[in-house]
Amino acid sequence: MLHFTHVPAVLRPDIKHFFHLLLTIDTPLEQLDRPASARKRLSPSTLTTLFQDLRPFLSWLEARGTRTLDEVTEQDLYEYAEQVASAPVGQNPKSRRLFALSRLWLMAPYLRRSGRLRQPFWEREGIEQIVGKSEWTAENKSAPIHPVTMSAVLVWCLRLIEDAPHVVSLLRTPNPAATGPLGGAAPIPTVGTWTGEVTPRQVDPLRRSLTTACLITIAYLAGMRADEVLGLRRGCCTPTMDGGRPSGAYAIRGRTYKSAVADGRSIPAGVERDVPWAAIKPVADAIAVMEALHTEDLLFTDSLFKARLKPTVVLDAGAPSSSRVRASIEHLIAWCNRRAVELNRPGEAIPADPDGNISLRRLRRTLAWFIYRRPRGRVALGVQYGHLHAATTDGYGGRVSAGLRDLFPMEEAFAISDTLHRAADHLQAHPTVSGPAAGRYRAAVTEYQHRYQGLSLTPKQTAALLANPDLRVHDAAGQTLACCFDARKALCRKGNSPTTASTTPDLTACEDRCANIARTDRHIAAVEADLAALQAELAAPLTPAPLRHRIELQISRREAIIQAHHDTPAGPP
Which helix (H) or strand (E) holds 526? Predict the structure, then answer.
């Protein structure tokens, strides 16, 4: 909300007109003599930031007795720029304060004469002359949720969704005619593996927890923005087909709100997406649970996030507020942690995130982080992320359909940069590299050191790094190999059609004979740990005979990998 009472009265009419124009027409950025990363059409939330950036200038004018914007002289702008340069704020806020005036100047032709600001001199001489080199990057600044916290949250969300068929009849909102994919004529027990027996007093808290679990699962695994997932409606999810048969993936249709414009005006209700989101089965299951939980059109109504829901109440038609969602996420975590204690599984409680409360905004950044840097842990969870990576980057609709086209490339670049940085440090003390791609691995590390070591990647450097096929080394803590990805040699992508361009490996489908594999001493240590576990399993008296043969083959393969590495001459550090 913009409080125009904070604007000096003499300037208020023109400033109101200026913000009305920003909502209804595009800013003519082509009038700038420099490239600009700004948007032509601003969202309401961005307008709030712009308003705050403009207020210091308006207060400065009021203190000087300036009554209209067209009275501002070139000397006035020089003096204001000096004040901005000396302000006790960072470089980015300073740049925003100056560009707020640039945007005011760009819109001058559409304002009445009193509101027409002259061209700021920094649009001729450069903002960097005043505030220094830009610190801005395209990186999403939201802190990723810590992997330990996020893994535990997702596991509990999936557990609740798994239990939903057993308890949904009790949690379903009052309409007795409510039916859904999980409903049926047969009586459904009200005891779940993870929820336990549900008493009448537990109905409201459990309904709220289940709703929040579905919200997190859909938003996180589909990569949706908060307003997009909260705007989903009944019937939005359908299975995708491949050659007339179900492909195992799903398409979700919904609305997008960012930059939704028609006839020169922003559309608060959003517009239908041209391309659906790609999704995997847990997302489809979560949507099915919500469709079974009530009969409203909107999947996530505000009432479902309330602490108590009266038996006769009619569900609110609108979506919940961000504060209501945050409170419900906190409620879900507290509920899960209580159940972990009650089930005598205290080690499965959800730990607090060191960067603060979990929000829907942080989920998208966390998804991109996990896909490119996912740590090993629960095998099922690792496989799930592998399937998700394929669905969102190479599957139906690609990155655009997942809504993560900005986050994926940036996070992939950071992951590759971190991988090569760690590799360079490791090779200093442990110079042995084995495997068919050992030469390419060394070459990638050397090139990275010469071009990027010690740099904070700019958007241009990020694009250059991703465009360089020689630097596409994929690795993560706990893996038994590094992948020097070359799509032509990748056995994990051998099923792709000739027209499908794969730019990343599927690390859940590695094959020992792949030509992209390289291993360092760190990878061999992980192989040796696997070998020890297999040997212990083989020695266990309860291991069945048919399984022993498979274990012996796996042991032989690992011993051969270890021996080949030890036989490889150490290279230069």
Answer: helix 521-539
CA 508 – CA 383 distance, rounded (Å)? 6
Structure tokens at 266: 């922003």
CB 303 within 8 Å of CB 309: yes
Query: In three state form, how does the secondary structure of 496-528 look?
Result: CCCCCCCCCCCCCCCCCCCCCEEEEHHHHHHHH
Q: Which of 165, 211, 209, 158 is nearest to 190 (CA)?
A: 165
Give yes or no for a contact between 390 and 506, defined as CB atoms under 8 angstroms apart.
yes
Q: What per-residue confidence (pLDDT) applies to 396?
A: 30
Give the 3-state secondary structure of residue 428. helix
| pLDDT value at 366 more than 90 | no
pLDDT at 394: 43
Residue 391 to residues 9, 250, 397, 401: CA-CA distances in angstroms?
Answer: 54, 9, 9, 10
Pairing of strands 482-484, 517-520: antiparallel
Q: Residue 526's closest CA among 488, 571, 475? A: 475
- What pLDDT is attached to residue 280? 86
Alpha helices for 241-280 (secondary structure H): none
Q: Full-prediction pTM beyond 0.70?
A: no
Q: End-to-end CA distance of the chain: give it in Å, rounded.
A: 59
Residue 185 banded pLDDT, cuts 50, 70, 90? very low
Residue 367: which pLDDT band, with cuts at 50, 70 and 90? confident
Distance CA 299, CA 159 (A): 20
Q: Highest mean pLDDT range out of 239-243, 523-527, 538-542?
A: 523-527
Q: State the pLDDT at residue 368.
A: 67
Q: Is 512 left (phi over 0), alpha (psi -120 to 50) or beta?
A: alpha
pLDDT over threshold 90, residue 91: no
Most distant CA pair in the chain, distance: 92
Q: Residue 110: what are its φ and ψ, rounded to 5°? A: -95, -5
Lowest mean pLDDT among 152-161, 366-375, 536-545: 366-375
Cα–Cα distance measured from residue 451 to residue 416, given in angstroms and rounded to the nearest whole number? 14
**Do the beta carbons of residue 61 and residue 115 sit within 8 Å?**
no
Q: Which residues, 6 or more positions from 289, have their beta carbon under 8 angstroms from its beta carbon?
A: 161, 164, 168, 182, 210, 214
C-alpha dihedral sign at 384, 388, 394, 396: positive
Residue recorded with tokens 């010690």:
454
Taking the C-alpha atoms of residue 2 and residue 66, their distance in angstroms, rounded to an integer, is 22
237-242 and 261-262 as β-strands: parallel, antiparallel, unpaired? unpaired
Whole-number Å distance between alpha carbons of 502 and 500: 6
Q: Round the average pLDDT of the chain to a whole number and report it.
A: 82
CB 41 within 8 A of CB 266: yes
CA dist 371 and 374 (Å) reads: 6
Q: What is the mean pLDDT of residues 362-376?
A: 67
Whole-angstrom Cα distance, residue 238 to residue 251? 5
Name the 3-class secondary structure at 271. strand
Assigned token pair, 374: 């996912």
Q: Which residues pair with 484 in a beta bridge?
A: 473
- Angstrom distance (rounded) from CA 265 to CA 24: 4
Residue 233's pLDDT band (cuts 50, 70, 90): very high
